[in-house]
Design brief:
With 460 residues, the chain is of the alpha/beta class. It has 17 helices and 13 strands. It has two domains: 245 residues, 3-Layer(aba) Sandwich (Rossmann fold); 165 residues, Glycogen Phosphorylase B (Rossmann fold, 3-Layer(aba) Sandwich). The strands form two sheets. A seven-stranded parallel beta sheet has the order 3-2-1-4-5-6-7, sandwiched between helices. Helix 12 links the parallel strand 11 and strand 12. The N terminus is likely disordered.
């Protein structure tokens, strides 16, 4: 891959570093390896006690943008006033649109993201050589990139992932896609949805997150539960991961006389609820709930696992996973996997070919899948080998991140984002004032009775 021009890409992130967002750190490391210069603008420091070892290898400078408006009220006001004074022709149209949309949505989210974008442009951007913005997640971070682009005339792009897509109002999501140089998303399912929202001619590309095939490779270690098969599930303890369904499926196995040991790793808001359910179902002696772990810590558990299971489900508000990275990791390790047929998961786990699928929210079907994999070791081993081959073929991190690097370089150069990626995109550049005249204006007065399409509670 050719080196990028001597310019810097500003990566706008919700929080950095985050243990649950390994794929972002891996992407940053690979882009740097490919010669791109990055500067990270994070809207929050999560302050997690544990971070992945790979974070220490990131060379990009990290700048934090204040995320709590009232705590940093005077900083926001002073930077916004200075930007208004310096660039009134750009500032006022963007401000009016942000204010109108916040009033229309009856939420302060948009005006807050505008204030953050103004802070970034006035206080964080000078002296950085940043020439293009790229945001991860299509809600808050991309809204900041959208307004930063409006205020500077720089182009932006973004990566869309999971609930940031499905819990967002269509009108504003469509606008953000239309203004972007390009959009990448991690599943074909997501891409089809985004194109339905924005139009089939928009530059939206499917790029899988990928996996480090040298770190995650088939390697079996002896488990201390060597007298029975070991089941593993990994994910934050949130509703869309389906852990209550998994516990009920494990309870059904116990009732039918199956012996096993299961590690469920993740931690999160449902921790107490899952602990209570585990005790109520009498699974204390064979199921253990563990805290969130780094990749290197997880490797120990992968190596001791006979079957990996993740009971993902779609929530009533539309929240769902794309393709969980832990499924890719388990398959890369050669572990037979069982998951559910939702969202982009069937793009990775082909039922009966590279893994096993069950309907969502169905503990009986999940239990049957577990019995199939535990009771037919030859089939399980075959699926494990096929899963590794699938990951090698379609989910190699280097090949996938290189596609993102190609798109970023072309966007920076102002050339069309098409070619070997096989899709057509726009590739024009305009100066800041010309861009400002093209950006949307309020279509109705904020005081009118016009109402927005009802949107879910998500920061945009």
């Amino acid at each position: 891959m050719a080196h990028a021009p001597d310019k810097v890409f500003g990566f706008i992130l919700k929080g950095y570093p985050r243990l649950s967002e390994t794929f972002i750190v891996n992407e940053i490391l690979l882009l740097e390896q490919f010669g791109l210069k990055l500067h990270i603008f994070a809207m929050r420091n999560p302050g997690e006690a544990k971070v992945h070892e790979s974070v220490a290898r990131v060379r990009a400078k990290v700048t934090y943008i204040p995320d709590y408006f009232w705590r940093f009220f005077f900083s926001f006001i002073s930077t916004n006033v200075r930007l208004w004074w310096d660039r009134p022709q750009l500032y006022w149209p963007a401000f009016r649109f942000a204010l109108w949309r916040s009033l229309r949505q009856r939420s302060s989210s948009t005006i807050k993201r505008f204030a953050q974008a103004a802070y970034l442009v006035q206080s964080s951007l000078p002296g950085t050589e940043v020439a293009h913005f790229h945001a991860h997640f299509s809600h808050g971070p991309t809204t900041v990139a959208y307004f930063a682009s409006w205020l500077t005339g720089m182009r932006y792009s973004f990566s869309a992932h999971a609930k940031d897509i499905y819990l967002q109002e269509h009108d504003f999501l469509r606008e953000k896609i239309h203004r972007a140089a390009f959009v990448v998303t991690c599943t074909g399912f997501n891409r089809d949805y985004l194109l339905r929202v924005a139009g089939s001619d928009e530059p939206v590309f499917r790029v899988y997150h990928g996996n480090d095939l040298q770190l995650f490779k088939p390697e079996r270690a002896t488990s201390h539960h060597h007298d029975c098969p070991v089941i593993l599930s990994v994910g934050r303890f949130v509703p869309k991961k389906g852990f209550p369904v998994l516990l009920h499926a494990l309870h059904k196995l116990r009732q039918e006389g199956w012996h096993f040991y299961c590690n469920i790793i993740g931690g999160g808001p449902l921790q107490d609820e899952l602990e209570q359910l585990r005790r109520r179902l009498g699974l204390d002696d064979c199921v253990e709930l563990k805290r969130q772990m780094s990749q290197n810590e997880l490797l120990t558990y992968y190596r001791q696992t006979d079957v990996f299971v993740l009971a993902c489900e779609v929530q009533n508000d539309g929240d769902r996973d794309g393709i969980p990275n832990v499924l890719v990791e388990a398959m890369a390790m050669g572990i037979p996997v069982l998951s559910t047929a939702i969202s982009g998961i069937p793009e990775l786990v082909e039922h009966g070919v590279s893994g096993w699928l069950a309907p969502e929210k169905d503990p009986d079907a999940l239990a049957e899948g577990l019995k199939t994999l535990l009771g037919q070791p030859e089939l399980a081993q075959h699926l494990g080998r096929a899963g590794r081959a699938k990951v090698e073929r379609d989910f190699d991190a280097q090949r996938n991140v290189e596609k993102i690097g190609t798109l970023l370089r072309r966007a920076l150069a102002g050339t069309p984002v098409n070619g070997e990626l096989g899709e057509t995109g726009r590739g024009h550049q305009v100066d800041a004032l010309a861009r400002a005249r093209e950006w949307p204006q309020p279509r109705t007065s904020p005081g009118t009775k016009a109402r927005a399409e009802k949107s879910p509670a998500i920061s945009v």
